[in-house]
Amino acid sequence: PLVTVIALDFGTLFSGALITETMFGWLGMGKLIYDLILGNDFNTALVALLFATGVVLVANVLADIAYAALDPHQLPRAGRGAMNGFARFRRRFLRHRAAVAGLAVLVVIALAALVAPLVEAALGLDATQVDLFGRYAPPGGGHLLGTDEAGRDVMLRLLYGGQVSLAVGLAAALGAALIGTIVGLAAGTRGGRTDALLMRLTDAVIALPVLPLLIVLAAVDLTRLGVPAGAAQSEEAALFHIVAVIALVGWTTVARLVRAGAFSVRIRDYVRAAEVLGALRLRVAFRHVLPNVVAPVVVATTLAAGNLILLESVLSFLGLGIQPPVLSWGNMLSNAQETIARAPALALWPGACIFATGIALNFLGDGLQDALDPRAAAD
């Protein structure tokens, strides 16, 4: 109970601290948000508010988890009925220590990337400012991770690069999951020639070598597809292009999982009863089949996200992905290869971020797979 109360009170005390800092002008996040609003820097103020909200939400979630994990009345007893689905999932997931550690690493990386403008304002630095007299500065002296070949702060560039790499990886994973779910549902619910055609298409995509295919798709000139030249050269179009390219090669696993799940659900009595009563195939697919295949889709998407972030980094490293001045971990690695003999740390830090994110996502996917496994229902 003490741990739970402390976690619950933390959110309240944090909110109170923000108000107190604003009222009395004390140094802290509350005063920082107030000064940003007075300075009309609303974008950075919004990021600060979102971070503060996230801290409170995380504290409340941790309090709920602590209550469920530490309350002896929540533990299974002989003769007690089965726990509800969410409680069972939470208990299994918390037992998977690697998954919990992976989730913690992802939260830290995501929050660090999210508060990059706040860190930049607090340090009084600019991630894009060139200082030729401060090139290759060692860690310390106002630059926690040193500076690069142009005298720019490495830590700030890592944080801003993380925003792009994580956003592209997440968007590509969601896009791949959407494509795979649609293809798998269509193949599994319609069957026959539709199933054969879609599965042969899936096999063809799987058979193609991924990296050469990505290189070809990433090199496509958007203006030849009818996109205006001004729009095709914008940063938004470049990001959307990379997300679409990665999603187009990453949907096959989800499609196969959804198809297999759809086949197993189609033969159940309630689905057959709905079909006999005249329910449309589209309604059957989304009302009865899709809810039963969500769990494997979530697991597959989580496991794929790490690989998709790595693919984005590879494309950026080859010069076909995110292009400067937009930062990503991949193009930071690409820039570091020219100076790796003189400053190997410039390649070490973005590589470590990519490695840590990929490993954390794989651990999280393994934990979700164990927690959502229906064969462990007797646990």
Summarize the structure.
The protein has 17 helices and no strands.
Describe the 3D structure.
The chain is mainly α and 379 residues long. It folds into two domains: 2-129, no CATH class; 154-376, MetI-like (MetI-like fold). The protein is built from 17 helices and no strands. Helix 4 packs across helix 17 (345-372) and helix 15 (294-317) packs antiparallel against helix 17 (345-372). The radius of gyration is 24 Å and the shape is globular.
**Helix fraction?**
over 70%
End-to-end distance: 26 Å
Low-confidence parts = 73-83
Shape: globular
| Overall domain count | 2
Total helices: the number is 17
List the secondary-structure elements in sequence, H or E.
Answer: HHHHHHHHHHHHHHHHH
Q: Which CATH class of the largest domain is shown?
A: Mainly Alpha
Summary keywords:
single chain, mainly alpha, 379 residues
Which helices and strands, and how do they pair?
Layout: H1 2-24, H2 29-38, H3 42-70, H4 85-95, H5 97-114, H6 116-123, H7 154-190, H8 192-207, H9 210-218, H10 229-232, H11 235-249, H12 252-266, H13 269-276, H14 281-289, H15 294-317, H16 329-336, H17 345-372
Helix pairs in contact: 1-2, 1-3, 2-3, 4-17, 5-7, 5-17, 7-8, 7-11, 7-12, 7-14, 7-15, 9-11, 12-15, 13-14, 15-16, 15-17, 16-17
